[in-house]
Amino acid sequence: MTAVTEPAAGAGDGSEASRPRGRSRRMGVVFWVSAGWVVLLILLALFADVLPIRDPEAKGIITGEVQRFESPGGNAWFGGDSTGRDLFANVVYGARPALLIGTVVTVVAALIGGALGLLAGFRRGRTDGAIMTVADIAFAFPGIIALIAVRAAFGNGMLVFIAIFSILAIPTYARIVRGATLSLVEQEFVDASRSLGASGRRIMARELAPNVALPLVALAFLGFAIVITLEGGLAFIGLSLDETTWGKLIADGVAEIRDHPHLALIPATVMYLTILAFNTIGDSLRQRAAPRQAVTARTVTAVPPVDGHHPDPRGADGSPVGPVAPTDAVLRIEDLHTRFATPGGVVEAVAGISLHLRRGEALGIVGESGSGKTMIFRSIVGAFPIPHVERRGSILIDDVDLVRLDDADERRVLGTRIGTVSQNPLTALNPVRRIDTQLTEPMRVHGGLGRQAARRRALELLEQVGIPGAKQRLREYPHQLSGGMRQRVTIAIALANGPDVLLADEPTTALDVTVQDQIMRLIDRLRREEGLAVALVTHDLAVVRGFTDRVAIVYAGQVVETGPTEVLFERPRHRYTVALLNSIPDLERPSHSELAAIEGQPPSLVDPPRGCRFAPRCTVATDRCRDEAPTLQESDEPGHHFACWHPEGSDRGR
Asked: Residue 11: what pLDDT?
């Protein structure tokens, strides 16, 4: 591939790259004091047998008899209990069951509950319902009753307590991880991974799991503290383990609290400080975890044609109506319909669209927000913001129909033949994975490259898209790059396996004007040098005119006009296209001139107008426009089609 010498991104674009890197947010003194307490407690519990302290029976290395109810002092640091045992030794040895139960329960519950929550949040639908129903039942069942019943049957063994506490804790972890996953799964980096052909299992393991890991660890520390609290409470009512625990020490000391308060207060203070330390660590980690916001595992179904009020794409004689895709088109979309259910009803977001792209050609897709531009791209790659979607029609890459492929074959095509560039490069990149990992993964999964070969190729791609210091950038995270550099990285990922088609969904939305120009020139250069077929969704008509060969105007899920860029800008025929062009500010007009606007709002796609969908906003609409939907017809200029009963320049329009 030929290297592209574009201006370096990050210089003068509000670059985060110019800020100091490598400084992590400090955790604070309280965090480190809490961590120190936990470490000290773990060391004492692990090495109690070899430390110079008495064992619970006062037979340790330290000599000197401990008296009953002895006050804290040099002979016995925490004093003696009612039987003359060293209270300090009992507190240290009592840490063992607390830490053991807390660790095992936390690890088991976090792993099982986290996996179930991740699966429920990603799969949704019946899987989510089944998992959450079981979790709700577990929540509703009183834990104390389960503990008493199991204890009566199996005794007070450590395994009994671990099993009960784990079963009771799993639903909490599952519910919290599910909530985090539901929010993460609608991020663009999940869409980007799916569009690169990643399987659901890989998305869960490589994209979602790292993002929920830190919140899960934070929850685990809080859960650890809860387990210690529960054990202490159960011991206080006589349901604890047979061995020495903090709860038992507190319960035994309460009887003598009036005359010898240290017997209960010292172990209670140790337990309190331990719980406080784990809570502090958990809260600090939770606050440190970057917030992640709310495409799920989707059921994308290919359905046979259905009857409806949409115009038949063929005429009465069976001949095609509208633009016919040339035989050399690399991408052909034919009569595509995309439907999904919403609380307000069934939405047909894409309604009978037909488009095509040749190699080396750039197609601009233009329309208002909500017109269905982005949904066309989502329909191509099968990535939707809702779980169950129906697609009807054909999406052909050469002669391979994506609508009718199974999941595995579709992933292979998406990973090698189609590249995507999303609107927001910050959300399109996984925030917890380094650039090299995200860039090399498509090459290793679909291209079969080894680690070193993929890394060399990644370095070439970063240099090709004009990123300075490419070798250093490979080791960085998305937040360390400027907006322009992040977008260049997403372009590099899209080019990783040498695709035939590049789908760019408003790739300059989050960038300033100078970087926008750099990115568009980069995409245009790559198109010309690599022979890419580029489809560009944008609101910016100036970008469309400067960087595309053909334009498709989309309104309410339908293509209403399409043709060569210059023809469409100079001689538009559809009234909606004319209105869009009239809305472009004219700098030659007097200052304070009123801007032209399209009156009204786009129609609801739950119940669209029966005839022309633009008729309610059109100034020349007639009864025919409101009752009969127009079909695409060719103008006097080759390749220029429009769907309008009273086009610009007709007698009705004059």
From this structure: 41
